[in-house]
Write a structure and sequence with these properties.
The complex is a heterodimer of chains A (783) and B (158). Chain A is α+β, with helices and mostly antiparallel strands. Chain A is built from 19 helices and 31 strands. Chain A has a seven-stranded mixed sheet, sandwiched between helices. In chain A, strands 10-15-16-17-9-26 form a six-stranded mixed sheet. In chain A, strands 18-27-28-31 form a four-stranded mixed sheet, sandwiched between helices. Chain A starts with a strand and ends in a 7-residue tail after the last helix. Chain B has 158 residues and is an alpha+beta fold. The chains are: A alpha+beta (783), B alpha+beta (158). The structure holds FE2/S2 (inorganic) cluster (FES) (2 copies).
Amino acid sequence: MTVENSKTGVTAGVVGHPVAKLDSGEKVMGRSEYIADLYRPNMVHGAVLGSAHAHARIVSYDTSEAEKAPGVVAVLTGDDVGEGRMGAFIKDEHAIAKGKVLYLGEPVAAVVAETEEQARSAVRLIKVEYEELDAVLSPEAGLAKDAPILHENLDDYFKVFDTGSAGNLASRTVFEEGDVEAAWESCDVIVEGEYTTEPQAHVAIEPCGALAEVDAGGRVTLWSANQSVFRVQANVCESLSLPMTRLRCLTPRVGAGFGNKMEAHVQPITVALTLKCGRPVKLILTREEDFEIVRARHPFKIRMKTGAKKDGTLIARKCEVLLDCGAFADDSPGVLGYSLLMARGPYRIANVRSEGKLVYTNKMRFGAYRGFGNPQVTFAGEQQIDDIAEQLNIDPIKLRRKNMTHEGDPWFLGQEVRSNGLKQCLDEVEARSNWKKRNQAAQRPGVKRGTGIAVAAHISGLLGTGAIVRMLEDGSISLNTGATDIGQGSDTVLAQICAETLKVPLENVFVSSPDTDGSPYNWGTTASRVTYTTGRAVAAASADVEKQVKEHAAQMLDCDIGDLELRDGGRVGIVGSNTDLPFFAVSAHAHWAVGGPLVGTSTLVFERDTLDPKRAVAQGLPFPRIGVMSFSAVVTEVEVDEVTGQARVVEAWSAADVGRAINPQLVEVQLEGGFLQGMGFALYEEMVWDGARLANPSLMDYKIPTTRDAPGVVHPIIVEAPEPDGPFGAKGAGEICINAVPASIANAVEDATGFRHRSLPMTSERVLRGMMSADKTSGEEAS
Amino acid sequence: MADREKLNLTVNSDNATVDADAGATLLTVLRDELRILSPKRGCNQGVCGSCTVLIDGTPQRSCLTLAVTCEGKPVQTVDGFDADTKMALLRDQFQQNGAVQCGFCTSGMLISAWHLLQEDGALSREDINAGLSGNLCRCTGYQKIVDSVAAASKEASS
Ligand code: FES
Ligand code: FES
């Protein structure tokens, strides 16, 4: 299959080619429809009331005033929903607060009215009587003896793995390989430290929202901003105790998701409202609500210790983490387990122990966020590698190269890694950043310059996925996978894989929008998994169609199947001869004469074990089968203003091994966008709680990077170490691009100022304080 | 409920009379009354820029602008540039360079970029960074957006 690049006029295979995203045409015209842009006949609007307390029993509701308010159609409280509970790992969450409220702002009641404004004013007229309880505002407080208990029936909740839940402990996980305690003795250098990171808000520019309507037969159709129509279906049906056949989930365009739209937000409430009032209900969160009631990146407390021999060989690492779960478990047990699985880093270290606890607190839930706990542990681990390099006087890249994992090496706990482009990532960033000559540019007065490196790995994979490839009567192709394109371009990438396999022009492939009625199951657009897992299913389903095309053609041309080949442009012909057939002739034959319509299918689930029990022990492993590994190396150059302490990234080189870039331009955007999001996390993004109240739930008070903050240039560097069973060798790119960024910046700031920051974000104030103390001492953190 | 008023607006060269609350913002009137949906509500607080439209030729945040103040002034959204060559250049560059990810910021970004292109001569990256600093994008890291505006500006001024 070939495609013409309108920019260069060059033709090339469609896989590996930077074709423009299929939806970019409608987007530059302003025509894409996101959840807030959908309207249904007779539609009404929903609004939610947030709880006034962080922890309280709900004694009673008085909804009489609200019901009389202008335009009000219906009111919903916890009394309207049953006992159903949802949750990815621990089913601990009702559709709306019921019995108790567990964080300030938690939706406790909702209203539907003719207009959004009417709904918002009426909802404030609902009076809820509470019996206030003591609040748990930190994981330490949650673990304290006599701490107030958030989930009194935790023991009875359904859990998908052995969580070890007890009291406010939502889950605990312990992994060990080798013998860490015995190994310290053989180390010549040991570094040890405590690290903390703060909550980061996702800030997808589109706030979360949903629209639901119920038909005459009582069946509900639900559109929402989502990362998986199937997770939406599961969450709504579990929390409202509906059979899945009663709910159809669809997706409009999604204004980005970074983990925030994977599990439920307002979908269950919206469905409950439409079931209550019988009319279509749209509920779109304000920006403040989106900050306050969806989810955020976990704050981490990390204690880490790493030991090495004089020659730099890493011998042992120990990592203990404490995670604030917030009020509901959501994806948190997964984040805990995953961060511990990644805490070794991409290194050969024989003795590793990582363990952690996840504790319920009376705050908004923390959950999935691009990197899934990995940026936090990498922030600690990669600074320790630099500390060791410094103490042993070894170049930081050299030390990493000496210890890095190679193809075929097991990952921590034992899973075999079949592709590994880490060495090439390191080589690339070292050469391209001119690492050996770093910091030799003329210093500007008042400015300290520094350069840092960090490496990381990430999985792509997890759970079930499928693809249906149908050849239509005219020979064109309909591709249906159920994977939500959240803007990253997965529809385009999957169409490229399908077009390449069937040798048809890209424009002959139509990608259906996910629909739980018609799409095969897809766990979701998460875990950097769509290109790798769904791509595999698409390649296999396309190959299934190829096989069927050849069976028909063999009959029609009276030849052996083995003599047939697919030809560019959607034709099948006899090898070594000019005889061939266009797909429409084959499809017509199948539709009208013999065999029936051509439908190729494939479903799969990621099946390789995370744990090799002969190598390692694990307790509380949330992912028995996880995924293949991508790798990255990031070099960052920073300038620190000596007067203000402001650190600025001047230039960065971000290399990632993505197996094979199906669409290099889309991989580059991941590297560039992921860098900036990681930079915001490293330098200034921080959700601040004032007691139980989130103090900065607005874009005025919570700053994300703008064009003015962006580095001079981020060099995206694509490395391709093909994964044997990946589609055309591809692995994921969506998260590997963020993991090493905060650590790389921290190492650069240390290089510039002599001060090691063990707490994020590295705000001007902290960097300034650090510089002042580094001038006095040798650079150990005071705070 | 607030008083409703009749407003006469000119949006994308069409005259429209709408009934709107006296306190309604232009964003609300465009979206809810006129169903012109390209301006997006990202924050409703004047920070994100996804609601940016041209009012009398200058980019404004429609979420901060009262609709009544727009009477007698032409309002232009990204839908209203059919015959405009500079907008066509920008659109082409945005698509070619991969400057569009989720696209939620794109309408506002294109309006701000188009306004920058009204300056004579090719824009520097500093000009573009300054001119787009009020439009947030969480997906792209801005690099491909700035590249696209720079390329369009070069083409427009050649
Ligand atoms: S919606 Fe107007 S600036 Fe964000
Ligand atoms: S493309 Fe998603 S916010 Fe800019």
